Amino acid sequence: MTKILAVIPVKMNSRRLKKKNVKLLNGYPMFLWTYAAAINCKYISKIVISSEATSVHNIAKKYGYKDNYIRPKKLIKDKFSNSDVVLDVLENQMKLGNNYDHVILLQPTSPIRQKGTLNKFIKNYLNSNRKSGLSLKGPIYKKYNFLGSLRNNKFTSTQKNLKNKVFYSPSASIYISEVKNFFNEKKFFIDPIFGYIVDKFEATDIDYVEDFKIAGLILKNKLLNVHKPIKLKN
Question: Which residues are bridge partners to 154 per DSSP?
Answer without folding.
Answer: 151
